[in-house]
Amino acid sequence: MNLKQCDRISGLYAITPDEQDTIQLVGKVRLALLGGAQVLQYRNKVADSTVRLEQARALRELTREFDIPLIINDDFPLALSVAADGVHLGGADSSVADARAVLGSGKFIGVSCYNQIALAHEAVSLGADYVAFGSFFNSIVKPDAVTATFELLRQARHEMAVPLVAIGGITLQNGGQLCKAGANSLAVISALFDAKDIQRTARQFATLIT
């Protein structure tokens, strides 16, 4: 992945909620994209494989319409079957090498590095295109997540050239602090998709980051 392509990992990084209804999910995501989300990660921890395929296909079409990357959360076969733009790996997921072997050189591979700068350096050395740190704030989705610090983000910005994604409890009230500390992108689930006006909230996040 070249640096110009990696620049596409920036701005509001929307992560889908655990929504079983595909029509409802696509409707919510469309509003987020209309509001200015620049990256979409499909993540659904409760749906079965049939629903996940249906939803991923629908979101692939939607992200093509808006010309933004579709990242699949740790599922190589699903990413391949819908021609997604890449995968995102957690600490207990498959390796960067395995992902690259399956997806090839033209796809994004992102890695969650939590609060560990050494893990981020290792991921990049193995070929990760971007790294994510967090949780920076209390998270509704992952209430027991480890805590990352602003100093960690500043250190990573100083030491690393790849895009940095911040995640965990991010809101319109606290997201700006992360951007100032060095985050290229803010990954958001609840504060975006639980909002009464998803499109307006996405626009506010997009403005916050730029």
Word description of this protein:
This protein has 210 residues and is α/β, with parallel strands linked by helices. It has a single domain (3-209), classed as Alpha-Beta Barrel (TIM Barrel). It is built from ten helices and eight strands. The protein has helices spanning 3-6, 22-35, 49-66, 76-81, 96-103, 117-125, 150-159, 175-181, 190-193, 198-209, and strands at residues 11-15, 39-42, 70-73, 86-89, 108-114, 130-133, 164-167, 185-188. Strands 1-2-3-4-5-6-7-8 form an eight-stranded parallel β-barrel, surrounded by six helices. Helix 7 links the parallel strand 6 and strand 7. The radius of gyration is 16 Å and the shape is globular. The two termini are 24 Å apart. The mean pLDDT is 93.
Question: Secondary-structure map with pairings?
Answer:
Blueprint: H1 3-6, E1 11-15, H2 22-35, E2 39-42, H3 49-66, E3 70-73, H4 76-81, E4 86-89, H5 96-103, E5 108-114, H6 117-125, E6 130-133, H7 150-159, E7 164-167, H8 175-181, E8 185-188, H9 190-193, H10 198-209
Parallel strand pairs: 1-2, 1-8, 2-3, 3-4, 4-5, 5-6, 6-7, 7-8
